UniProtKB/TrEMBL annotation:
Cofactor or coenzyme needed: FAD
Catalytic activity: cyclobutadipyrimidine (in DNA) = 2 pyrimidine residues (in DNA)
Source organism phylogeny: Eukaryota, Metazoa, Ecdysozoa, Arthropoda, Hexapoda
Cited PROSITE patterns: DNA_PHOTOLYASES_2_1, DNA_PHOTOLYASES_2_2, PHR_CRY_ALPHA_BETA
GO molecular function annotation: deoxyribodipyrimidine photo-lyase activity; DNA binding
NCBIfam families linked to this entry: phr2
EC number: 4.1.99.3
UniProt domain Photolyase/cryptochrome alpha/beta: residue ranges: 67-199
GO BP annotations listed: photoreactive repair; UV protection
Name of this protein: Deoxyribodipyrimidine photo-lyase
Pfam families recorded: DNA_photolyase (PF00875)
Record-stated family: Belongs to the DNA photolyase class-2 family.
Enzyme class: lyase
Protein backbone atom coordinates (compact mmCIF):
# COMPACT_ATOMS: atom_id res chain seq x y z
CA UNK A 1 0.00 0.00 0.00
CA UNK A 2 1.37 3.41 -0.96
CA UNK A 3 1.94 5.27 2.30
CA UNK A 4 5.52 6.59 2.15
CA UNK A 5 5.81 10.35 1.71
CA UNK A 6 7.39 10.17 -1.73
CA UNK A 7 4.83 7.84 -3.18
CA UNK A 8 1.73 9.15 -4.98
CA UNK A 9 -1.26 9.76 -2.77
CA UNK A 10 -3.91 7.07 -2.80
CA UNK A 11 -7.14 6.89 -0.84
CA UNK A 12 -7.36 4.20 1.82
CA UNK A 13 -8.68 0.94 0.46
CA UNK A 14 -12.24 0.05 1.38
CA UNK A 15 -11.26 -3.60 1.36
CA UNK A 16 -11.50 -3.57 5.14
CA UNK A 17 -14.44 -2.81 7.37
CA UNK A 18 -13.85 -0.99 10.64
CA UNK A 19 -14.76 -2.32 14.08
CA UNK A 20 -17.18 0.59 14.43
CA UNK A 21 -19.14 -0.62 11.39
CA UNK A 22 -19.19 -4.10 12.93
CA UNK A 23 -20.79 -2.76 16.11
CA UNK A 24 -23.41 -0.82 14.19
CA UNK A 25 -24.29 -3.75 11.96
CA UNK A 26 -26.23 -5.55 14.72
CA UNK A 27 -28.54 -2.55 15.04
CA UNK A 28 -28.76 -2.42 11.24
CA UNK A 29 -29.81 -6.09 11.15
CA UNK A 30 -32.43 -5.56 13.84
CA UNK A 31 -33.86 -2.58 11.97
CA UNK A 32 -34.16 -4.64 8.78
CA UNK A 33 -35.88 -7.48 10.65
CA UNK A 34 -38.33 -4.99 12.15
CA UNK A 35 -39.13 -3.75 8.62
CA UNK A 36 -39.86 -7.32 7.51
CA UNK A 37 -42.11 -8.01 10.49
CA UNK A 38 -43.93 -4.71 9.97
CA UNK A 39 -44.50 -5.65 6.31
CA UNK A 40 -46.27 -8.92 7.25
CA UNK A 41 -46.37 -11.50 10.04
CA UNK A 42 -45.34 -14.15 7.49
CA UNK A 43 -45.49 -14.91 3.79
CA UNK A 44 -49.02 -16.26 4.28
CA UNK A 45 -50.15 -12.75 5.21
CA UNK A 46 -48.34 -11.15 2.27
CA UNK A 47 -49.67 -10.64 -1.25
CA UNK A 48 -46.93 -12.53 -3.14
CA UNK A 49 -46.47 -11.34 -6.74
CA UNK A 50 -47.06 -14.49 -8.82
CA UNK A 51 -45.21 -12.95 -11.77
CA UNK A 52 -42.00 -13.70 -9.88
CA UNK A 53 -42.52 -17.43 -10.55
CA UNK A 54 -42.44 -19.77 -13.56
CA UNK A 55 -43.91 -23.27 -13.32
CA UNK A 56 -41.36 -25.49 -15.09
CA UNK A 57 -43.23 -28.78 -14.72
CA UNK A 58 -46.64 -29.74 -16.12
CA UNK A 59 -47.92 -30.46 -12.63
CA UNK A 60 -49.01 -27.40 -10.68
CA UNK A 61 -50.70 -28.85 -7.58
CA UNK A 62 -48.90 -30.18 -4.50
CA UNK A 63 -49.98 -33.82 -3.86
CA UNK A 64 -52.16 -34.34 -0.78
CA UNK A 65 -49.94 -37.01 0.79
CA UNK A 66 -46.69 -35.04 0.64
CA UNK A 67 -44.43 -34.88 3.71
CA UNK A 68 -42.45 -31.75 2.91
CA UNK A 69 -41.54 -28.97 0.49
CA UNK A 70 -37.96 -28.40 -0.67
CA UNK A 71 -36.26 -25.20 -1.73
CA UNK A 72 -33.44 -26.22 -4.08
CA UNK A 73 -31.05 -23.37 -3.34
CA UNK A 74 -28.33 -22.60 -5.87
CA UNK A 75 -27.86 -19.00 -6.98
CA UNK A 76 -29.33 -17.29 -3.92
CA UNK A 77 -27.57 -18.53 -0.79
CA UNK A 78 -29.42 -16.63 1.90
CA UNK A 79 -32.45 -17.01 4.14
CA UNK A 80 -34.03 -13.57 4.48
CA UNK A 81 -35.00 -11.27 1.58
CA UNK A 82 -35.24 -14.27 -0.74
CA UNK A 83 -38.42 -14.60 -2.81
CA UNK A 84 -37.68 -18.25 -3.65
CA UNK A 85 -37.24 -19.18 0.02
CA UNK A 86 -40.38 -17.23 0.90
CA UNK A 87 -42.44 -18.93 -1.79
CA UNK A 88 -41.22 -22.36 -0.62
CA UNK A 89 -42.24 -21.49 2.93
CA UNK A 90 -45.63 -20.32 1.67
CA UNK A 91 -46.24 -23.74 0.05
CA UNK A 92 -45.05 -25.56 3.19
CA UNK A 93 -47.25 -23.48 5.50
CA UNK A 94 -50.30 -23.89 3.25
CA UNK A 95 -49.81 -27.65 3.13
CA UNK A 96 -48.88 -27.83 6.83
CA UNK A 97 -45.66 -29.76 6.16
CA UNK A 98 -41.94 -29.33 7.01
CA UNK A 99 -39.69 -27.12 4.90
CA UNK A 100 -36.30 -28.30 3.64
CA UNK A 101 -33.45 -26.51 1.88
CA UNK A 102 -31.11 -28.51 -0.38
CA UNK A 103 -27.90 -27.23 -1.90
CA UNK A 104 -26.36 -29.57 -4.50
CA UNK A 105 -22.58 -29.11 -4.46
CA UNK A 106 -20.66 -30.15 -7.56
CA UNK A 107 -16.99 -31.16 -7.60
CA UNK A 108 -15.94 -28.65 -10.29
CA UNK A 109 -17.59 -25.58 -11.74
CA UNK A 110 -16.17 -23.98 -14.88
CA UNK A 111 -12.80 -22.39 -13.98
CA UNK A 112 -13.59 -21.74 -10.31
CA UNK A 113 -10.69 -22.06 -7.87
CA UNK A 114 -10.76 -22.86 -4.15
CA UNK A 115 -11.19 -19.10 -3.60
CA UNK A 116 -14.77 -19.24 -4.91
CA UNK A 117 -15.65 -22.60 -3.40
CA UNK A 118 -14.48 -21.34 0.01
CA UNK A 119 -16.68 -18.25 -0.27
CA UNK A 120 -19.65 -20.36 -1.36
CA UNK A 121 -19.35 -23.15 1.22
CA UNK A 122 -18.55 -20.92 4.20
CA UNK A 123 -21.58 -18.82 3.24
CA UNK A 124 -23.73 -21.97 3.14
CA UNK A 125 -22.49 -22.93 6.59
CA UNK A 126 -24.06 -19.70 7.87
CA UNK A 127 -27.26 -20.37 5.91
CA UNK A 128 -27.50 -23.81 7.55
CA UNK A 129 -27.12 -22.24 11.01
CA UNK A 130 -29.84 -19.68 10.24
CA UNK A 131 -32.13 -22.46 8.95
CA UNK A 132 -31.66 -24.48 12.14
CA UNK A 133 -32.80 -21.52 14.27
CA UNK A 134 -35.95 -21.38 12.13
CA UNK A 135 -36.73 -25.14 12.37
CA UNK A 136 -35.90 -25.61 8.69
CA UNK A 137 -33.70 -28.55 7.67
CA UNK A 138 -30.65 -27.74 5.53
CA UNK A 139 -29.12 -30.51 3.39
CA UNK A 140 -25.83 -30.41 1.49
CA UNK A 141 -26.02 -33.00 -1.30
CA UNK A 142 -22.97 -34.12 -3.27
CA UNK A 143 -23.49 -33.80 -7.03
CA UNK A 144 -25.56 -31.64 -9.36
CA UNK A 145 -29.28 -31.14 -8.82
CA UNK A 146 -29.97 -33.23 -11.91
CA UNK A 147 -27.95 -36.13 -10.46
CA UNK A 148 -29.16 -36.21 -6.87
CA UNK A 149 -32.33 -34.19 -6.30
CA UNK A 150 -35.04 -36.30 -8.03
CA UNK A 151 -34.21 -39.39 -5.96
CA UNK A 152 -33.95 -37.34 -2.76
CA UNK A 153 -37.45 -35.99 -3.47
CA UNK A 154 -38.79 -39.55 -3.84
CA UNK A 155 -37.01 -40.82 -0.71
CA UNK A 156 -38.48 -38.09 1.47
CA UNK A 157 -41.97 -37.80 -0.10
CA UNK A 158 -41.44 -34.16 -1.07
CA UNK A 159 -44.50 -32.50 -2.61
CA UNK A 160 -42.93 -29.59 -4.53
CA UNK A 161 -39.53 -28.27 -5.56
CA UNK A 162 -38.94 -24.50 -5.60
CA UNK A 163 -35.70 -23.41 -7.28
CA UNK A 164 -33.64 -20.34 -8.11
CA UNK A 165 -33.35 -18.68 -11.53
CA UNK A 166 -29.99 -18.64 -13.28
CA UNK A 167 -29.64 -17.72 -16.98
CA UNK A 168 -26.34 -19.54 -17.52
CA UNK A 169 -25.92 -22.70 -19.59
CA UNK A 170 -24.76 -25.15 -16.90
CA UNK A 171 -27.45 -24.31 -14.30
CA UNK A 172 -30.10 -24.38 -17.06
CA UNK A 173 -28.85 -27.89 -17.83
CA UNK A 174 -29.32 -28.89 -14.18
CA UNK A 175 -32.86 -27.52 -14.29
CA UNK A 176 -33.66 -29.54 -17.42
CA UNK A 177 -32.23 -32.65 -15.80
CA UNK A 178 -34.36 -32.24 -12.68
CA UNK A 179 -37.44 -31.52 -14.79
CA UNK A 180 -36.86 -34.72 -16.81
CA UNK A 181 -36.31 -37.05 -13.82
CA UNK A 182 -38.61 -35.53 -11.20
CA UNK A 183 -41.71 -37.51 -10.24
CA UNK A 184 -44.54 -36.41 -12.54
CA UNK A 185 -46.88 -35.44 -9.68
CA UNK A 186 -44.31 -33.06 -8.09
CA UNK A 187 -44.42 -29.43 -9.28
CA UNK A 188 -41.11 -27.74 -10.15
CA UNK A 189 -41.38 -23.99 -9.67
CA UNK A 190 -38.70 -21.41 -10.44
CA UNK A 191 -38.52 -18.03 -8.70
CA UNK A 192 -36.26 -15.19 -9.84
CA UNK A 193 -34.97 -14.05 -6.45
CA UNK A 194 -31.78 -12.59 -7.92
CA UNK A 195 -33.21 -9.76 -9.99
CA UNK A 196 -35.48 -7.00 -8.75
CA UNK A 197 -37.66 -7.28 -11.86
CA UNK A 198 -37.77 -10.97 -12.86
CA UNK A 199 -35.79 -11.59 -16.05
CA UNK A 200 -38.78 -12.88 -18.02
CA UNK A 201 -40.93 -9.93 -16.86
CA UNK A 202 -38.36 -7.25 -17.70
CA UNK A 203 -38.27 -8.37 -21.34
CA UNK A 204 -39.22 -11.35 -23.48
CA UNK A 205 -36.28 -10.92 -25.89
CA UNK A 206 -32.58 -10.07 -26.04
CA UNK A 207 -32.22 -6.31 -25.56
CA UNK A 208 -29.81 -4.33 -27.68
CA UNK A 209 -28.44 -2.10 -24.93
CA UNK A 210 -29.08 -0.41 -21.60
CA UNK A 211 -30.99 2.25 -23.53
CA UNK A 212 -33.56 -0.28 -24.75
CA UNK A 213 -34.10 -2.07 -21.42
CA UNK A 214 -33.81 0.85 -18.98
CA UNK A 215 -37.40 2.05 -19.19
CA UNK A 216 -38.77 -1.51 -19.25
CA UNK A 217 -37.12 -2.09 -15.86
CA UNK A 218 -37.55 1.34 -14.28
CA UNK A 219 -41.26 1.46 -15.18
CA UNK A 220 -41.78 -1.74 -13.15
CA UNK A 221 -39.86 -0.76 -10.02
CA UNK A 222 -42.94 0.61 -8.27
CA UNK A 223 -44.38 -2.90 -8.47
CA UNK A 224 -41.25 -4.96 -7.80
CA UNK A 225 -38.92 -2.88 -5.62
CA UNK A 226 -40.94 -3.68 -2.51
CA UNK A 227 -40.20 -4.55 1.11
CA UNK A 228 -39.90 -8.23 2.05
CA UNK A 229 -41.90 -10.17 4.64
CA UNK A 230 -39.84 -12.39 6.98
CA UNK A 231 -39.00 -16.07 6.68
CA UNK A 232 -40.42 -17.21 10.05
CA UNK A 233 -39.71 -20.05 12.45
CA UNK A 234 -41.34 -22.97 10.70
CA UNK A 235 -44.12 -24.62 12.76
CA UNK A 236 -43.83 -28.10 11.18
CA UNK A 237 -40.83 -30.26 12.11
CA UNK A 238 -39.18 -32.77 9.80
CA UNK A 239 -39.44 -36.47 10.71
CA UNK A 240 -35.78 -37.02 9.76
CA UNK A 241 -32.53 -35.26 10.61
CA UNK A 242 -30.21 -33.86 7.93
CA UNK A 243 -26.95 -35.73 7.36
CA UNK A 244 -24.09 -34.11 9.34
CA UNK A 245 -21.97 -31.76 7.20
CA UNK A 246 -18.17 -31.49 7.34
CA UNK A 247 -17.85 -27.98 5.93
CA UNK A 248 -14.06 -27.88 5.71
CA UNK A 249 -14.02 -31.23 3.96
CA UNK A 250 -16.63 -29.93 1.50
CA UNK A 251 -14.13 -27.24 0.46
CA UNK A 252 -11.08 -29.51 0.53
CA UNK A 253 -12.64 -32.15 -1.73
CA UNK A 254 -13.54 -29.82 -4.63
CA UNK A 255 -11.63 -30.25 -7.89
CA UNK A 256 -10.28 -26.71 -7.91
CA UNK A 257 -6.96 -24.88 -8.00
CA UNK A 258 -5.85 -24.69 -4.36
CA UNK A 259 -3.10 -22.17 -5.10
CA UNK A 260 -5.79 -19.48 -5.53
CA UNK A 261 -7.08 -19.23 -1.99
CA UNK A 262 -9.52 -17.05 -0.01
CA UNK A 263 -9.01 -13.29 0.23
CA UNK A 264 -8.85 -11.35 3.47
CA UNK A 265 -11.08 -8.39 2.69
CA UNK A 266 -14.29 -10.24 1.72
CA UNK A 267 -15.66 -12.68 4.28
CA UNK A 268 -18.59 -14.87 3.22
CA UNK A 269 -22.13 -14.61 4.54
CA UNK A 270 -25.06 -12.24 4.96
CA UNK A 271 -23.69 -10.53 8.09
CA UNK A 272 -20.44 -9.67 6.30
CA UNK A 273 -22.39 -8.39 3.30
CA UNK A 274 -24.32 -6.08 5.62
CA UNK A 275 -21.07 -4.76 7.09
CA UNK A 276 -19.80 -3.89 3.62
CA UNK A 277 -23.15 -2.30 2.73
CA UNK A 278 -23.11 -0.22 5.92
CA UNK A 279 -19.57 1.00 5.22
CA UNK A 280 -20.58 1.90 1.65
CA UNK A 281 -23.59 3.93 2.79
CA UNK A 282 -21.66 5.62 5.62
CA UNK A 283 -18.42 6.39 3.79
CA UNK A 284 -18.43 5.89 0.04
CA UNK A 285 -21.92 6.53 -1.32
CA UNK A 286 -21.48 10.30 -1.17
CA UNK A 287 -18.64 10.20 -3.73
CA UNK A 288 -19.93 7.28 -5.82
CA UNK A 289 -21.33 9.49 -8.62
CA UNK A 290 -18.11 11.46 -9.15
CA UNK A 291 -15.33 9.05 -8.17
CA UNK A 292 -16.48 5.53 -9.08
CA UNK A 293 -14.44 5.46 -12.31
CA UNK A 294 -11.20 6.44 -10.54
CA UNK A 295 -9.32 3.30 -9.42
CA UNK A 296 -7.24 5.33 -6.93
CA UNK A 297 -10.35 6.46 -5.03
CA UNK A 298 -12.34 4.48 -2.52
CA UNK A 299 -15.82 4.99 -4.00
CA UNK A 300 -17.22 1.58 -4.96
CA UNK A 301 -19.80 -0.47 -3.07
CA UNK A 302 -17.62 -3.64 -3.28
CA UNK A 303 -20.82 -5.69 -2.97
CA UNK A 304 -20.26 -7.87 -6.04
CA UNK A 305 -18.93 -11.02 -4.25
CA UNK A 306 -22.05 -11.21 -2.07
CA UNK A 307 -24.32 -10.32 -4.99
CA UNK A 308 -22.81 -13.09 -7.11
CA UNK A 309 -23.38 -15.82 -4.53
CA UNK A 310 -26.76 -14.38 -3.54
CA UNK A 311 -25.62 -13.94 0.06
CA UNK A 312 -27.43 -10.61 0.13
CA UNK A 313 -30.36 -9.51 -1.99
CA UNK A 314 -29.70 -6.76 -4.55
CA UNK A 315 -33.26 -5.68 -3.86
CA UNK A 316 -32.46 -5.22 -0.15
CA UNK A 317 -29.33 -3.21 -0.98
CA UNK A 318 -31.30 -1.06 -3.44
CA UNK A 319 -33.96 -0.38 -0.78
CA UNK A 320 -31.29 0.66 1.73
CA UNK A 321 -29.39 2.87 -0.70
CA UNK A 322 -32.60 4.45 -2.01
CA UNK A 323 -33.28 5.91 1.44
CA UNK A 324 -30.43 8.37 0.77
CA UNK A 325 -31.82 9.66 -2.51
CA UNK A 326 -32.59 13.17 -1.27
CA UNK A 327 -29.14 13.47 0.36
CA UNK A 328 -27.01 11.96 -2.44
CA UNK A 329 -29.31 12.07 -5.46
CA UNK A 330 -26.71 11.58 -8.21
CA UNK A 331 -24.88 8.82 -6.37
CA UNK A 332 -28.04 6.90 -5.56
CA UNK A 333 -29.28 7.16 -9.15
CA UNK A 334 -25.89 6.03 -10.48
CA UNK A 335 -25.76 3.08 -8.08
CA UNK A 336 -29.31 1.94 -8.92
CA UNK A 337 -28.46 2.15 -12.63
CA UNK A 338 -25.48 -0.17 -12.09
CA UNK A 339 -27.04 -2.54 -9.54
CA UNK A 340 -30.42 -2.92 -11.23
CA UNK A 341 -30.45 -1.84 -14.90
CA UNK A 342 -26.93 -2.88 -15.95
CA UNK A 343 -26.91 -6.07 -13.88
CA UNK A 344 -30.32 -7.15 -15.13
CA UNK A 345 -29.28 -6.31 -18.71
CA UNK A 346 -26.48 -8.87 -18.22
CA UNK A 347 -29.00 -11.54 -17.12
CA UNK A 348 -31.15 -10.64 -20.13
CA UNK A 349 -28.22 -11.16 -22.52
CA UNK A 350 -27.19 -14.51 -21.06
CA UNK A 351 -30.79 -15.78 -20.87
CA UNK A 352 -31.77 -14.88 -24.44
CA UNK A 353 -28.41 -15.29 -26.23
CA UNK A 354 -27.27 -18.88 -26.58
CA UNK A 355 -23.71 -17.75 -27.43
CA UNK A 356 -23.25 -15.37 -24.49
CA UNK A 357 -19.57 -16.36 -24.12
CA UNK A 358 -18.61 -16.59 -27.79
CA UNK A 359 -17.84 -14.24 -30.70
CA UNK A 360 -20.94 -15.81 -32.29
CA UNK A 361 -22.98 -13.90 -29.68
CA UNK A 362 -21.81 -10.52 -31.00
CA UNK A 363 -23.92 -8.33 -33.30
CA UNK A 364 -23.36 -8.75 -37.04
CA UNK A 365 -21.44 -5.46 -37.30
CA UNK A 366 -19.05 -6.52 -34.54
CA UNK A 367 -18.48 -10.01 -35.95
CA UNK A 368 -17.73 -8.48 -39.35
CA UNK A 369 -15.30 -5.86 -38.06
CA UNK A 370 -13.42 -8.37 -35.90
CA UNK A 371 -13.19 -10.71 -38.88
CA UNK A 372 -12.02 -7.92 -41.20
CA UNK A 373 -9.13 -7.20 -38.80
CA UNK A 374 -8.41 -10.80 -37.81
CA UNK A 375 -5.06 -10.84 -39.66
CA UNK A 376 -3.87 -7.39 -38.55
CA UNK A 377 -0.38 -7.40 -37.04
CA UNK A 378 -0.40 -7.33 -33.23
CA UNK A 379 2.31 -5.24 -31.55
CA UNK A 380 2.55 -7.84 -28.78
CA UNK A 381 1.30 -11.41 -28.46
CA UNK A 382 1.07 -12.96 -25.00
CA UNK A 383 0.27 -16.44 -23.77
CA UNK A 384 -2.35 -17.08 -21.10
CA UNK A 385 0.47 -17.96 -18.69
CA UNK A 386 2.25 -14.63 -19.25
CA UNK A 387 -0.99 -12.74 -18.74
CA UNK A 388 -1.77 -14.74 -15.57
CA UNK A 389 1.64 -13.83 -14.14
CA UNK A 390 1.24 -10.08 -14.90
CA UNK A 391 4.38 -10.10 -17.06
CA UNK A 392 3.44 -7.80 -19.95
CA UNK A 393 5.20 -4.60 -21.07
CA UNK A 394 2.31 -2.55 -19.55
CA UNK A 395 2.75 -1.76 -15.84
CA UNK A 396 -0.83 -0.51 -15.49
CA UNK A 397 -2.26 -3.73 -16.99
CA UNK A 398 0.05 -5.80 -14.81
CA UNK A 399 -1.10 -3.90 -11.71
CA UNK A 400 -4.75 -4.53 -12.58
CA UNK A 401 -4.03 -8.25 -13.03
CA UNK A 402 -2.14 -8.30 -9.70
CA UNK A 403 -5.15 -6.70 -8.02
CA UNK A 404 -7.35 -9.44 -9.47
CA UNK A 405 -5.03 -12.23 -8.31
CA UNK A 406 -4.44 -10.81 -4.83
CA UNK A 407 -7.89 -9.41 -4.00
CA UNK A 408 -10.24 -11.46 -6.15
CA UNK A 409 -11.68 -8.22 -7.51
CA UNK A 410 -10.58 -5.66 -10.07
CA UNK A 411 -11.73 -2.05 -10.19
CA UNK A 412 -14.60 -1.77 -12.69
CA UNK A 413 -13.01 0.91 -14.87
CA UNK A 414 -9.77 -1.03 -15.16
CA UNK A 415 -11.61 -4.26 -16.01
CA UNK A 416 -12.56 -2.61 -19.31
CA UNK A 417 -8.98 -1.52 -20.07
CA UNK A 418 -7.62 -4.91 -18.94
CA UNK A 419 -10.01 -6.82 -21.18
CA UNK A 420 -9.52 -4.66 -24.27
CA UNK A 421 -5.75 -5.05 -24.04
CA UNK A 422 -6.21 -8.83 -24.09
CA UNK A 423 -7.93 -8.39 -27.48
CA UNK A 424 -4.98 -6.28 -28.65
CA UNK A 425 -2.32 -8.76 -27.45
CA UNK A 426 -3.67 -12.17 -28.45
CA UNK A 427 -3.77 -13.91 -31.87
CA UNK A 428 -7.55 -13.75 -32.38
CA UNK A 429 -10.79 -12.43 -30.87
CA UNK A 430 -11.65 -16.03 -29.91
CA UNK A 431 -8.39 -16.40 -27.96
CA UNK A 432 -8.92 -13.01 -26.32
CA UNK A 433 -12.41 -13.92 -25.13
CA UNK A 434 -11.29 -17.34 -23.90
CA UNK A 435 -8.36 -15.86 -21.93
CA UNK A 436 -10.37 -12.99 -20.45
CA UNK A 437 -13.17 -15.30 -19.29
CA UNK A 438 -10.68 -17.79 -17.84
CA UNK A 439 -8.76 -15.14 -15.87
CA UNK A 440 -11.97 -13.57 -14.59
CA UNK A 441 -13.55 -16.90 -13.64
CA UNK A 442 -10.41 -18.31 -12.03
CA UNK A 443 -9.38 -15.35 -9.87
CA UNK A 444 -12.41 -13.14 -9.34
CA UNK A 445 -14.75 -14.00 -6.47
CA UNK A 446 -17.63 -12.80 -8.64
CA UNK A 447 -16.47 -14.66 -11.78
CA UNK A 448 -18.74 -17.14 -13.62
CA UNK A 449 -21.47 -14.48 -13.49
CA UNK A 450 -23.62 -12.93 -16.24
CA UNK A 451 -22.04 -9.55 -15.47
CA UNK A 452 -18.57 -11.04 -15.98
CA UNK A 453 -19.47 -12.64 -19.31
CA UNK A 454 -21.10 -9.41 -20.47
CA UNK A 455 -18.09 -7.35 -19.33
CA UNK A 456 -15.81 -9.51 -21.48
CA UNK A 457 -18.27 -9.49 -24.40
CA UNK A 458 -18.67 -5.69 -24.21
CA UNK A 459 -14.91 -5.12 -24.18
CA UNK A 460 -13.98 -7.61 -26.92
CA UNK A 461 -17.16 -8.07 -28.98
CA UNK A 462 -18.92 -4.72 -28.60
CA UNK A 463 -22.20 -6.04 -27.20
CA UNK A 464 -24.49 -3.35 -25.74
CA UNK A 465 -22.22 -0.83 -27.51
CA UNK A 466 -21.95 0.77 -30.96
CA UNK A 467 -19.35 0.96 -33.72
CA UNK A 468 -16.54 3.50 -33.27
CA UNK A 469 -13.75 4.87 -35.49
CA UNK A 470 -12.03 2.00 -37.29
CA UNK A 471 -8.49 1.06 -36.32
CA UNK A 472 -6.09 -1.88 -36.51
CA UNK A 473 -6.99 -5.10 -34.61
CA UNK A 474 -10.08 -3.57 -32.95
CA UNK A 475 -11.86 -2.60 -36.13
CA UNK A 476 -14.90 -0.62 -34.95
CA UNK A 477 -14.85 -2.05 -31.40
CA UNK A 478 -14.38 0.72 -28.82
CA UNK A 479 -10.69 1.33 -28.08
CA UNK A 480 -8.99 2.17 -24.77
CA UNK A 481 -5.34 2.97 -24.22
CA UNK A 482 -2.72 3.81 -21.59
CA UNK A 483 -2.68 7.56 -22.33
CA UNK A 484 -6.47 7.67 -22.00
CA UNK A 485 -6.18 6.15 -18.52
CA UNK A 486 -3.49 8.73 -17.67
CA UNK A 487 -5.96 11.48 -18.44
CA UNK A 488 -8.64 9.85 -16.28
CA UNK A 489 -6.75 9.13 -13.05
CA UNK A 490 -3.33 9.03 -11.39
CA UNK A 491 -2.04 5.79 -12.85
CA UNK A 492 1.25 6.06 -10.93
CA UNK A 493 -0.68 5.91 -7.68
CA UNK A 494 -2.51 2.75 -8.77
CA UNK A 495 0.69 1.12 -10.01
CA UNK A 496 2.45 2.00 -6.74
CA UNK A 497 -0.27 0.24 -4.76
CA UNK A 498 -0.17 -3.04 -6.70
CA UNK A 499 3.42 -3.05 -7.88
CA UNK A 500 3.03 -3.94 -11.54
CA UNK A 501 6.36 -3.69 -13.35
CA UNK A 502 7.27 -3.13 -16.99
CA UNK A 503 8.47 -6.48 -18.32
CA UNK A 504 10.64 -6.70 -21.41
CA UNK A 505 8.65 -8.13 -24.30
CA UNK A 506 9.99 -11.40 -25.61
CA UNK A 507 8.01 -12.51 -28.70
CA UNK A 508 6.74 -16.08 -28.40
CA UNK A 509 8.49 -18.50 -30.74
CA UNK A 510 6.51 -19.83 -33.68
CA UNK A 511 4.29 -22.74 -32.72
CA UNK A 512 4.15 -21.75 -29.02
Amino acid sequence: MASAAKKPKLSTSSLSVTAETGKNVEEFMKALQTKRETTADSILKYNFNKKRIRIISREQMVPDDCEGIVYWMSRDSRVQDNWAFLFAQKLALKNEVPLHVCFCLIAKYLDASVRQFHFLVKGLEKVAADCKKLNISFHLLEGSGAEVLPQWVIDHKIGAVVCDFNPLRVPLGWLEGVKKDLKKDVPLIQVDAHNVVPCWVASDKQEYSARTIRNKINSKLDEYLSEFPPVIKHPYTSKFEPEPIDWDNAIETREADKTVGPVEWAKPGYDEALKMLKSFIDKRLKIYATKRNDPTQDALSNMSPWFHFGQISVQRVALCVQEYKSKYTESVNAFLEEAIVRRELADNFCFYCEHYDSVKGASNWAQKTLDDHRKDKRSHIYTLETLSKSETHDDLWNSAQLQLVKEGKMHGFLRMYWCKKILEWTPSPEDALKYAIYLNDHYSIDGRDPSGFVGCMWSICGIHDQGWAERAVFGKIRYMNYDGCKRKFDIKAFIARYGGKVHKYVPAKAGK
